Amino acid sequence: MSAIPVTDTMLPDALRSALRDAQTQVNEMVLGKPLQVRLAFVALLADGHLLIEDLPGLGKTTLAHAMAATLGLGFSRVQFTSDLLPADILGVSIYEAQTRQFEFHPGPVFAHVLLADEINRAPPRTQSALLEAMAEHQVTVDGQTRVLPDPFFVIATQNPVDLSGTYPLPDSQLDRFLLRLSLGYPDDAAERSLLAGRDRRELIAKIHPLLDAPRILALRNAVQDVHASDALLDYVQALIARSRKHPGVRVGLSPRAGLALLRAARAHALLLGRSHVLPEDVQALFPAVAEHRLVAEADASTSSLAKQILHAVAVD
C-alpha cells in the first residue's frame, strides 16, 4: 500500500502536492509502514502529539527523524534517562554575574518538533514536565509563562512497559497524546530492502524539507473546515458512550477523547482527499485514539477492547 494522494479541492495545488510528497518521502525512509506514516501525519495535521510504542530496533526513532527532517521545522531531541531532570527539558534560569540578574536559558522543548526518545525511561516527575507544554503549548518556569513555537509537535517513543528500566506513563500524560501506534516487524520485502539498502540515518541526513511552518498551519486550518455531519457526530458519541459501559472497561473515554477522535478523523479525511468525514475515518482512527486512554479490568487488554467497542456500535 502506498501513500494515497491528496486530491481535495479544499487545498491549493502547491499545498496538496507538498503534503503528498512529504508522505512519500517519509515512506521511503520507513519501508513497508504506510498506515503508520499516514497516522503520523494525522497527528501532525490534527494539532496533536504522537506516541510510538514498540520493541527496540523496529524503526520508532527512524520514523520520528524522518518526520522531523521532512517537516522543515526547528527540531530538538531529548534522550530520556533515569537521571533526566525537568530543567533538562524546560530550561533553567542562571545568575549572570555581569548583569547581576537571572537569565533564562531555554531547554530543548523550545522547538517546533520535539523528539522525546524512550520517554518511559525517565521517572514520572520528569515525564510530567511535558504536561503543560503538550496541553497548552507553553511552559511555566520560575513563575513566568513562556509560549512555545507554533506549530509545536511532540513525537515520543517508548519501549513496552514490561521491559526493564521503564516507568509507566501516567494516565494524564497518555491523554496528551492524540494517537498511539506501533510499527511491528517489517514484512519480508521491506526487510530485504532494509538489508540491501543504505543506512537509514545516512539517508535521512540527506533528505530535503518539503513542508514548513506556514504550510503546516495552513493544513491545520484546512482540517478544521472538514465537514462532520450530525449522523457522524452521533456515531462518535455512541462509541464514546459504549466505551463507558463495555464489559472489561474500568474507565471509559472522556469527552476530550471524543474531541480528539473527531479531530483526528477530520485530518484523516483530508489526507485521503475528502472535505467531509466518513464513518470509515472514525473506524480507522479509533484504536490509535482509544487504546491508550481506556483503562481495562485486570484480565482485559485495551487493544481487544477497542476492537470490541467498534464492532458493538453499528453505523446508522
- Tell me how many strands there are: 11
Given helix and strand content, the structural type is: alpha/beta
Give a quick account of the main beta sheet: strands, pairing sense, barrel closure. Answer: 5 strands, parallel
Instruction: Indicate the percent of residues in helices.
Output: 40-55%
Oligomer: single chain
Global outline? globular
SS strand fraction: 15-25%
State the strand order across the main sheet: 2-5-8-1-9
> Topology as H/E string?
HHEHEHEEEHHEEEHEHHHHEHHEH
Which segments are poorly predicted (pLDDT under 50) over 5 or more consecutive residues?
A: 1-9
**Nearest-angstrom radius of gyration?**
20 Å
Secondary structure tally, helices: 14
Task: Quote the distance from N terminus to C terminus.
Answer: 29 Å
Mean pLDDT: 89
Please provide a written account of the structure.
The protein is an alpha/beta fold. The protein is globular, with a radius of gyration of 20 Å. Strand 6 (138-141) and strand 7 (144-147) form a beta hairpin. 45% of the residues lie in helices and 15% in strands. The strands form four sheets. Strands 2-5-8-1-9 form a five-stranded parallel beta sheet. Strands 3-4 form a two-stranded antiparallel ribbon. A two-stranded antiparallel ribbon has the order 6-7.
Summarize the structure.
With 316 residues, the chain is an alpha/beta fold.
Keywords:
316 residues, 5-stranded parallel sheet, globular, two-stranded antiparallel ribbon, alpha/beta
